[in-house]
Write a structure and sequence with these properties.
Blueprint lengths: L23 H10 L5 H8 L3 H13 L4 H23 L14 H15 L4 E6 L4 E7 L5 E8 H9 L3 E3 L5 E6 L1 H12 L20 E2 L13 E2 L6 H6 L12 H16 L29 H16 L3 H10 L4 H8 L6 H20 L8
Antiparallel strand pairs: 1-2, 1-5, 2-3, 4-5, 6-7
Helix pairs in contact: 1-3, 2-3, 4-6, 5-7, 9-10, 9-11, 9-13, 10-11, 10-13, 11-13
Length: 372
């Protein structure tokens, strides 16, 4: 049975108010439909013509055919109605009565994680009406699918309302794809990340944290190189499509799942409190790779799993999986940085994934490498 990975729940909307991430047109829609404000009054507040507000309201109304958008508006509508009741009766709302929607910080963090997954070739976000969580799955070689991420339903609702994801049909299971607006949003989210680097580890080596660099490009006066983000797919996903001379997959599905499990734990480990975990010790031959004792929270547990896996692999193997699976560094760049011969990285990576899969089976149980 696959081990369940817990995603930290989002912070409820504080004070029963509308979060800042809600688009302007959705705010106007809620003000008109839920709070009964006239269109002309909204136009005066927004300093625009009444026809502009009317078009925005009609646009949002047509989007309610999307299940996630409809759910998001329903939840935000309850927020608006509760706010009116609180203002009228001066009665505070209990925690149980507060509609659960993500705050701005949570949406930024989760949006960055999920949008990167949806940029990978063949990736979709799937969710059913009765599901509390959505899953991101990616089509692999031979028609097989790999689950690469799990996300709380309110996060998916917020992403749909902002237009970052969209569905092209309806059914028992809705499938969402990243939109052009979602790709633009991801680029902006990656650009505004803190100086810790895109993967968020304050003491980790910053030269290979989630971006690929042009080795021939000149450094800027501040010593930083211009970055190229490969938003299409991870190095592991690209390698998974390759085949040996006999036509068999170079990486079997269970090896891909092991690498994706490590990456998911790596990303989960960065949530919550500020992270100061130093992963450089796993990239230094002879370094102390013993796992650290962590607290019992979901991010801490994920950090413990990553540390245990990397310590088990040891120098060399831990280098290649951490760089390629977690930091998303390309194989050619990894080979250059480690001083390996050309085209040897994929062989070492396959051996590392075999060891990683064995580690998960022995420590967490058979099938535990799957994200669920």
């Amino acid at each position: 049975m696959a081990t369940q990975i817990s995603i930290p729940s989002m912070t409820p909307i504080s004070g029963g108010g509308i979060p800042n991430w809600v688009p302007t047109e959705a705010r106007h829609y809620l003000s008109h439909v839920e709070m009964g404000r006239p269109i002309r009054a909204l136009a005066r507040s927004a300093d625009c013509h009444a026809s502009t507000i009317l078009r925005q309201i009609r646009k949002i109304e047509t989007r309610r055919d999307d299940p996630l958008v409809d759910d998001a508006l329903e939840t935000l509508g309850r927020v608006s109605r509760n706010k009116m009741i609180i203002n009228k009766d001066k009665m505070p709302m209990t925690q149980a009565e507060k509609p659960s929607m993500p705050d701005d910080e949570t949406l930024t963090r989760e949006g960055r994680r999920i949008l990167r997954r949806l940029c990978e070739t063949g990736a979709v976000l799937a969710i059913a009406a009765e599901m509390e969580k959505a899953v991101v799955v990616r089509d692999g070689a031979g028609g097989a699918s790999t689950r690469t991420a799990v996300v709380d339903r309110p996060i998916a609702q917020a992403m749909a309302l902002k237009g970052w994801i969209a569905t092209n049909g309806s059914g028992r299971i809705s499938r969402y794809y990243i939109t052009a607006a979602g790709r633009t949003a991801l680029e902006q989210l990656l650009e505004i990340e803190s100086p810790r680097g895109p993967e968020g580890f304050a003491e980790a080596q910053t030269s290979f944290q989630g971006q690929s660099y042009d080795e021939d490009e000149e450094a800027t006066p501040r010593g930083a190189r211009r970055m190229r983000y490969n938003l299409a797919e991870s190095p592991l996903a690209a390698l998974a499509r390759r085949r040996d001379k006999d036509g068999t997959q170079f990486l079997t599905d269970n090896l891909v799942q092991a690498g994706e499990r490590l990456r998911e734990d790596f990303e989960l480990s960065q949530m919550g409190e500020k992270i100061t975990q130093n992963w450089e010790r796993f990239l230094t031959p002879g370094g102390d790779g013993a796992p650290t004792s962590f607290a019992g929270s979901a991010p801490s547990a994920a950090r413990a799993r990553v540390a245990s896996a990397l310590a088990e692999l040891g120098p060399g193997l831990s280098d290649v999986v951490l760089r390629c699976c977690c930091y998303l560094e390309g194989l050619e760049t990894t080979e250059k940085r480690l001083g390996w011969s050309a085209r040897s990285g994929k062989i070492v990576l396959r051996i590392a994934l075999m060891r990683l899969r064995k580690h998960y089976d022995e420590t967490l149980g058979p099938g535990s490498a799957m994200i669920g």
